[in-house]
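new request in #modeling-help
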Amino acid sequence: MSESVRDTIKMVDIYIMGKRYTVPETLTIMDAMEYAGYQLKRGCGCRAGFCGACATVYRMAGDYELKVGLACQTKVEEGMYLAQIPFFPARKATYELEEIRPSVAHFTQLYPEVFRCLGCNSCTKVCPQDIEVMQYIAYLQRGDFARAADISFDCLMCGLCVSRCPVNIVHYNAALAARRLYSRYIAKPDAFLAERAKAIEAGELDAEIGELVKGDKEKLQELYNNREIEK
Amino acid sequence: MAYTPQLKELMKKVEETRASRVGVDYPRMSPEERREVLQNFHPDYIEDGFREIKVGVDKGIRMTNEMADVFESYSRLRDMEIDFKAEPDYDVDVLIIGGGGAGASAALKAHEAGANVLLTTKLRFGDANTMMAQGGIQAADKENDTPAIHYLDVVGGGRLENIPELARALVMDAPLVIRWLEELGTMFDKNEKGTMITSHGGGTSRKRMHAARDYTGAEIMRTLRDEVYNKGINVIEFSPAVEILLDQQGRAGGTVLYNLETEQYLIARSKTVIIATGGSGRLHYRGFPTSNHYGATADGLIIGYRAGAKTIYTDSIQYHPTGGAFPPQLLGLLVTEKTRGLGAQPLNINGEQFVYHLETRDVESSAIIRECEERGLGVPLPTGITAVWLDSPLIELIHGEGTIERQLPAMLRQFKRFDVDIRKEPMLIYPTLHYQNGGLLIDDQARTSVENLYVAGEAAGGIHGTNRLMGNSLLDILVFGRRAGMGAAAKSKEISTPEGLNLDHVASYHRELEEADAAGERVGPILLPHYTHR
């Protein structure tokens, strides 16, 4: 950023792991760290709010409350004390999807800690995606995999919920298992998809495409320009 | 940063014309009009952005200057002694470089075929453009559709420059891939009967875009990653490959890995190698912002090229028409094509539509650039750039209230974080650097011109010609990821452990660079973009 831009943009002081840096107030936490001179390895991923790499904990000067956010999706503010969580050593249950079913009995084997929830709601409060985390844990306890899958869907697996849980539930991994169980066993398979896949494997659709693959460019262009388009 | 009072004033024009635009289709361009707007406004046609490279198997080929800088670079191992006599740190059948959708699907298929698999990746497993793909994945699995109809869309959209066998593999495997994902428990949008809910994308002639809300790529990625872990496949994070090793016969036989954190170099020996390192948007061609992942720096292209793999269409880059332009924190961020699929129209400063909302990406982008640069009808932003409106509130007028929250939750959330409610306020967009159409040349089994070296995903070229359609990238990474995994596993059963691993090809590449005085002090792959002290 040039000196002239520095003159026109308001600067704020932030504290990265306790060290003060003066940065433009329009930046996200991630951009501000780079502006300050960090070349990020951990704590940086898609830079667009999809991957959950950049979970960040912060506190405003003079306040006691810890806040959280994704570094790429949160603007810096004057007096922000921050640190990133580069990795969280959470457990993932391994399983064979074909050998389990969406039942409380099976789920207890995978993630027994889900059933020890104290109802403190810390997970929901900390979620940067505003997911009702404790609610889906409650659905899982009841074996309501459909609802748990639905409301947990926007999870980025950033790990902040896990970091605050007093009974060590790994919410995001439990939710992922729930969504896979729901999608495999509760949502119905697409009937025509199965039929189409079989037809392809049997070679029934080879002839139609074979003509096109051999076709010269002029012919293909004409077919393309005049193709029928579904409304 | 919410919209400024000036922008709110300009927004009134959009609101005034909104009702009159419902249900009215702006005419599509004729083939001649498409050609004209591309030639005059698409960045691929601006000559000073390109040069011919001076070294390697494709010496003389044209590529963007920024990509050429990576190709014309010295190895990171230039002044290093590597002890090839020592036992390698890893010794496997199939080595996969890259932890996105292509790498993960290759790993699963190779493992299934009984191979000993190692997957290494530069950042975290799942840190990839796959994770960010929002809108959908194409497959001809409806009664009014066939792979042949899909094929015509692919090659027509690709300006008929696709390699026919690759496009064929893409569309024929598509329903198989969707069925595979369904069986793995991927949460697609379905109705209560289980039928996939599908929609149009730019340039599709049938509604064949399958989605998982607007987190389609994330849903696919987390499912595949979960399965890789379930299968116990060995995954090493923060360890990019910085060079391919060749054996005495010039066949691929492993890689040199670099531990980003301890800065150690490690040797991985493998019977076969799959490059699945993705794209290169973080090279910021022509200074464009990008929708790409932090790690998209063309690593696989350069190490594959040094090893002798041929390339294709290295001068063809896709600019996605709808990149975020304002608020400034969203610059370059992808606004999913699903937004237009649901009916949102691009509008100029007068609130007038100037292009059909679902032209192919190259044409749509060029029309937006023309509206801003030639016609001067863009919306001036306080950040000094111009943009056009994308009328998202129209979506709810067409499909009813609540549609955006249901169908575009990620978009709604992202703009809300910076105080814009896309249900009520239109978005401001401008084309963003999105996709590398070209890459390393493969055949329909994902093999390169170097024996035992495979490529899958965005690092491969030729599948999409010189313009890819929405929903065909998530598809291609899985189609060719699976094929690469199966092929490499089968090959590794036929061959013995590679012998005499060496980096002689790198030394001769260096000699070429020196003779042509082509590299300056550049070292590649760059691995991480440089954004410090901007």
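bot summary: Chain A touches chain B through 74 residues (CB under 8 Å).
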